[in-house]
Amino acid sequence: MITVIKGMRDLLPPESGWFAQLESEARAIFAQYGFAEIRTPILERTELFTRSVGEETDIVGKEMYSFADRDQTSLTLRPEATAAVVRAYVEHRLWDQPGLARLYYSGPMFRRERPQKGRYRQFFQIGAEVLGGDAPQIDYELLEMLARLLDRIGLAGWTLKLNSVGCAQDRERYQQALRAALEPVKGGMCADCQRRAETNPLRVLDCKHPEDQPIIATLPALQDYLDDGCRNHFEQLQKLLQAGKIEYQNEPRLVRGLDYYSRTAFEFQHRALGAQNALLGGGRYDQLAERLGAPKGTGAGIGFAIGLDRLVSVWRELTAPAPAQTDTGATTDAETRTGIYLAPLGEPALIPALELARQLRQTGAGKKRTDAMIAVVVGDAALAAKKHLQLASRAHYRWVVLLGEREIASRELTVKDLASGNQSAHVWEQVALHLGL
Ligand code: AMP
Fold this sequence. Notes:
Layout: H1 15-32, E1 36-37, E2 43-45, H2 46-52, H3 58-63, E3 65-68, E4 74-77, H4 82-91, E5 101-110, E6 122-131, H5 136-152, E7 158-164, H6 168-182, H7 191-199, H8 213-217, H9 228-243, E8 249-250, E9 262-270, E10 278-284, H10 288-291, E11 301-307, H11 308-319, H12 333-336, E12 340-344, H13 350-365, E13 376-378, H14 385-394, E14 399-403, H15 405-410, E15 412-417, E16 423-427, H16 431-434
Parallel strand pairs: 1-5, 7-8, 12-13, 12-14
Antiparallel strand pairs: 2-4, 3-4, 5-6, 6-11, 7-9, 9-10, 10-11, 14-15, 15-16
Helix pairs in contact: 1-5, 1-11, 5-9
Bound molecules: adenosine monophosphate.
Adenosine monophosphate (AMP) binds at residues 80, 111, 113, 118-120, 123, 125, 256-257, 278-281, 305, 307, 309-310.
């Protein structure tokens, strides 16, 4: 048997349905805030990520799926989408269009991390970027949009952690202070931190080793090194959050795992997630687009990425209606049954059954919400009524419509409700009504 690759997984129904539903909730809210979708390729040139995400990050250092194409160009399966969206912003001169560019994306990302619960090597992100401005109100509206999305899907209990990582000069001064503070203590830290203390001390703050945390808590805080512009920006943003009644926690040691961030950095966490508690993360990256070729003054940007795998797992845990349990632990019918199974009894019933299916689907499609559409399937005409009923019941359909020779001739069809066990007869034209379509 050939199995799926380690750290990757197949999303089967019903889980795939949860993904789709969350995605559609997100799309609806994003549209309200003026975002439109961008789809970039899954493969990019490796240098896009080394230059934007940063050579010293875990992602670029050890997690990318990179390979040489047949012409020896080094290509990489995207580990994240911001770099690609910014590349597209620059390449298609979106900076030249009036107003801000508000773009969202949804799709798979690839990182060769150590697999564990909530951490996969192919995972899904839905994210958004606003490019072309750096006013704090942009950051505010992005955070408001996320808070609204989480509230709307019923995920009470989120926490917004907020920090400012300042601009390049602030971080330069801070790095010096950090290096000095790390010098006497780094010997007691993990091997990664000892290396980072030399190469990129900011990354030390990102360390997840519990033993290193007490040392990290004593290190200087970046917020004390912000220049006036960055401090004002951060204060302005906090003022807007307070006015908008969006709760947040100021988290002076929050840094994100990618090098391109400046000023605002944030994470939404959820206690139901355990060790991998970040539902989504993001921040401002005012230099990235210019580094990738945008003209001066057009490159400021901010964005976030929601981990859909984690969002689905918390969402299911907190909001999924637990299927009602019977004494034996089996789920009750009324909770889980849905859809219509048409049972043609013999070959002559097949064409009428296909016709009825067509009609029922059309009536169902008249409903506005596509996610509320009811499935209509046609069983194998070679099966006997008893077999049809067994199959429909085991596959958790709610309704079975029997189409035998007699029923077709009289145009009066037998409809069985598998949830209640009730059976009734209806003229062909009334079936849809009875089925609630
Ligand atoms: P990042 O792109 O690292 O800022 O991550 C943004 C969000 O994506 C995180 O908050 C997670 O929810 C999710 N995420 C990142 N890496 C993984 C992974 N390996 N498996 C599942 N979700 C992930």
